[in-house]
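ok new one. same drill as before - structure tokens go in, u give me an amino acid for every spot. 378 of them this time. try not to just spam alanines like last time pls lmao
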């Protein structure tokens, strides 16, 4: 009987998307362009928010737009009045933009002349949250007519977002929408910042636009930060953590993401789980010049903070239930290979029996993955 070959299409598609998303980030970094992913359901007012935002920001920044729709150019025609670089992407049926679509869109734009690139995603509260497209900021636009229960019904969308804009608050007196209840539901699933506003009346718009301006100004030269590791030669990156203990999974999650996007012969990425001692032979056989270990470490910072340490600094700070001395293992690796050993700690919020990683640590995992990718691929 013939052996049947199984192809995991979904996993392959997501891996390819993540790889392209990192390529998009590298391109945006090189051109000094800050990219914002605008998501939300049809009719929430995404384009109206963009109109108001671009009108105000155009005095300080050079904006550009990638407009995503299943079909048509109606929203792009509305934004054409600003006479800015713009590309329309019609997905032809797909309910979201993916990283490859965005990459093709960016290739058609003069990115070096664009300070801030707005990417208006297809109207949908499900699929856009699942596809990383390489942006620096994710924004979800909700609206009063949709009801206050949307964060509970579509938690991944709101959990993914850095900012939530609640549009059409001018309709509050005419509906049974409860703003505090929406705020409560949002807080249960996400740590994103909420901006209630009305594009129609202008109420609350200034606060949102000023906050966005501050975020852009805080970017060093309008570029994403990298992390200075002084890593050279052959490099081993080891992610550690127990995925059944909430934020302790941080290191393993970074390793998983890096393995999908860093494809270099002189870089080896290992997801060691909570058993790095089982990979010492593999590490030493690679003969590395630099060993980087990523783990959840309680160094007294805020949840999601990232700290680079020498191996001897951590002692027994590692928060997970490892039954070994990490500093001792790294010292032995150094003796055997001469490699410089570095530990990157992510401050956990919670170490409990759960597969649910806190929002702060999830964002730190994403940020650290980007920073290390930029450092290793520069």
């Amino acid at each position: 009987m013939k052996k049947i070959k199984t192809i995991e299409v979904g996993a392959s598609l997501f891996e390819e998307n993540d790889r392209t998303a990192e390529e998009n980030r590298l391109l945006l970094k090189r051109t000094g362009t800050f990219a914002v992913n605008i998501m939300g359901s049809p009719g929430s007012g995404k384009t109206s928010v963009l109109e108001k935002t671009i009108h105000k920001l155009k005095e300080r920044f050079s904006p550009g737009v990638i407009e995503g729709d299943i079909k048509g150019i109606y929203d792009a025609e509305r934004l054409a009045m600003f006479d800015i670089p713009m590309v329309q992407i019609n997905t032809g049926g797909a309910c979201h933009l993916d990283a490859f679509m965005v990459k093709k869109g960016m290739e058609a734009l003069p990115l070096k002349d664009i300070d801030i690139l707005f990417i208006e995603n297809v109207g949908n509260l499900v699929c856009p949250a699942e596809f990383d497209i390489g942006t620096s900021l994710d924004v979800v636009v909700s609206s009063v007519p949709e009801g206050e229960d949307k964060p509970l019904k579509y938690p991944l969308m709101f959990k993914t977002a850095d900012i939530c804009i609640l549009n059409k608050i001018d309709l509050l007196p005419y509906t049974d929408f409860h703003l505090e209840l929406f705020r409560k539901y949002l807080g249960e699933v996400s740590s994103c910042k909420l901006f209630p506003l009305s594009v129609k009346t202008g109420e609350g718009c200034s606060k949102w636009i000023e906050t966005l301006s501050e975020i852009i100004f805080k970017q060093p030269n309008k570029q994403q930060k990298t992390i200075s590791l002084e890593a050279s030669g052959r490099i081993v990156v080891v992610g550690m953590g127990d995925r059944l203990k909430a934020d302790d999974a941080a290191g393993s999650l970074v390793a998983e993401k890096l393995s999908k996007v860093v494809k270099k012969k002189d870089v080896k990425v290992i997801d060691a789980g909570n058993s790095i001692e089982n990979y010492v032979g593999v590490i030493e056989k690679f003969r590395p010049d630099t060993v980087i270990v990523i783990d959840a470490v309680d160094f007294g910072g805020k949840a999601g903070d990232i700290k680079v340490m020498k191996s001897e600094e951590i002692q027994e700070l590692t928060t997970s239930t490892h039954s070994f001395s990490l500093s001792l293992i790294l010292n032995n690796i150094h003796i055997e290979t001469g490699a410089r050993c570095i530990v990157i700690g992510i401050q956990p919020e919670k170490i409990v029996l759960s597969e649910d990683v806190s929002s702060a640590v999830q964002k730190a995992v994403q940020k650290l993955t980007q920073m290390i990718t930029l450092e290793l691929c520069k």
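DSSP finds 13 helices and twelve strands in the chain. and btw Residues 9-222 form a domain with the Rossmann fold fold (CATH 3.40.50.300).
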